[in-house]
Amino acid sequence: VENFQLIDSTLREGEQFANAFFDTEKKIEIAKALDAFGVDYIELTSPVASEQSRKDCEAICKLGLKAKILTHIRCHMDDAKVAVETGVDGVDVVIGTSKFLREYSHGKDMNYIAKSAVEVIEFVKSKGIEIRFSSEDSFRSDLVDLLNIYKTVSSVGVNRVGIADTVGCANPRQVYELIRTLKSVVSCDIECHFHNDTGCAIPNAYTALEAGARLIDTCVLGIGERNGIVPLGGLMARMIVAAPEYVKSKYKLHKLRDLEVLVAEAVEVNIPFNNPITGFCAFTHKAGIHAKAILANPSTYEILNPNDFGMTRYIHFANRLTGWNAIKTRVDQLNLHLTDQQCKDVTQKIKKLGDIRPLNVDDVDSIIKDYHAEISTPQL
Ligand code: HCA
Ligand code: CU
Question: Most buried pick, 128, 207, 216, 348, via CB within 10 A?
């Protein structure tokens, strides 16, 4: 899994998210933030989608970002001719290969698909631009059809092939098998695009890399059609565990939170409470037993180090599950001096109130301060 690359599609798949509308300025802001984070590629909406989409694509190409700029088109010469004039570094073409898409979407057979794929690939390559060919709805396509089309596009020198779980139906075992099989028929890099309808987007992405794929499509916060695709942040959480040095040296992980806030505000959603890394409680420890061990060594209950992402760990002590180690830490923070036994006593008082109602930090602080005052008052 070392050496993987990211194709961020917030400005293509992400535009297909229910709430998304990015004006030119917002697209440029997001493109710059993605580039600063360090994604390898930025994928943009097709220039034939609308007049403004084409202009925005040209504007982003002119920014001179480090990330390569891609646009995403149907497997059709009409689209390809417009795409190569925008200034992009690469073109991603896609065509539906499942029986659903062949019957209810474009109505073409596999021979027609192969013929137009070859034509588009040769044309885009002749312009000195990178080209990726992908099948749409790959996991509900006939395997023989799929392998044939990939063999064909590989032989005409496509730069990457992609597979897409368009409906989010695949599970990791199916992903592993398909990538393994595909690797035996193509010589180029493999890219993967996973929707999250059944909650498998990140596991599928990870498994695809294990099976030998090289590139993963992501969106910030996982936005996209329906409930979206692989979230950039969630994939980072998975990958930093698998390839810590690579991930830490390649991506500016401290910029993740701001990038997510930027996109969340643009599409008017909140960052989910259970979001990996940036969810509000992602590094909050609560139970007394956890708090004690975290204070001794954070790795006891943390697989991710919040510092790697510019986040901070928090020990939630204002509750009835708290323990005296957490309270002792709070006592120290308040610059008060209590013995261990006194900390245990005051913890009992806190738990007692915590049994009656939810507590906040002020409640705990005043219990501690009152207790401290009481034991410090000379007895007459
Ligand atoms: C769609 C197309 C796509 C394309 C994926 C890709 C999908 O919006 O239906 O080009 O890799 O999910 O199949 O996003
Ligand atoms: Cu998609």
Answer: 216
